[in-house]
Design brief:
The chain is mainly alpha-helical. 73% of the residues lie in helices and 0% in strands.
Length: 206
């Protein structure tokens, strides 16, 4: 019985070697390329099927916390609970430091807390991270006006208008702010040096 099994095993091995030996060269080359390509076809987690890897699970948890904290911050911002909003958005940046929306919302929270200089820094960072982040220019205009930088505020509001669609709900307020800033700058140019004032007036654009 064992001799028959050995004979069968031997014949199978021999037949396999014969099959490989007689395979066309193009088919052998294709099989070799497939074997070499497997490491590059593998997903980042290292498996095609089965349970998620530890890294994938950690990424999912981080994304979930970002979404939860961001939504919490938005609610607090609308409720004018600026300190709570600041805490939530700071946590978002701890997880994802390059999220421009979080930088913008921190800027608005800081404006609400009466800290325009710090707010301007966050708005400016948001424009660097994403040059088309419209509300970053809007917020930067508010912050710079509060700091007495009317020219900078005007340029920021104009940048916002340049990027915002015609039906944007804040566009009319930004246009009014631009008109006020231009008028203030023209008045300063026309007034004698001693009468010029650098004190910022509220734009009423929020």
């Amino acid at each position: 019985m064992s001799q028959q099994s050995s004979a069968k095993h031997f014949n199978f091995g021999q037949n396999f070697r014969l099959t490989v030996a007689t395979m066309p060269a193009w088919l052998l080359a294709g099989c070799l390329l497939l074997v070499l390509a497997i490491p590059f076809l593998m997903p980042r987690g290292g498996v095609f099927f089965g349970a998620p890897t530890v890294e994938a699970h950690a990424r999912d948890k981080a994304r979930e916390e970002i979404r939860r904290r961001f939504d919490e911050g938005v609610v607090m911002l609308h409720a004018k609970e600026y300190s709570h909003a600041l805490t939530a958005f700071h946590r978002v940046l701890e997880i994802d430091p390059k999220m421009p929306e979080a930088h913008v919302n921190i800027g608005f929270a800081l404006l609400g807390l009466g800290k325009p200089k710090a707010a301007a820094d966050f708005f400016d960072t948001a424009t660097v991270l994403r040059p088309d982040q419209m509300n970053a220019y809007y917020g930067l205009g508010e912050a710079l006006n509060q700091l007495g930088d009317k020219l900078g505020a005007l340029q920021s509001m104009e940048a916002y208008l340049h990027r915002s669609p015609k039906d944007d709900r804040y566009r009319a307020k930004a246009e009014a702010a631009v008109w006020e800033l231009r008028a203030a700058l023209n008045a300063e140019k026309a007034a004698p040096p001693s009468a010029a004032s650098t004190k910022a007036k509220p734009l009423g654009i929020r």
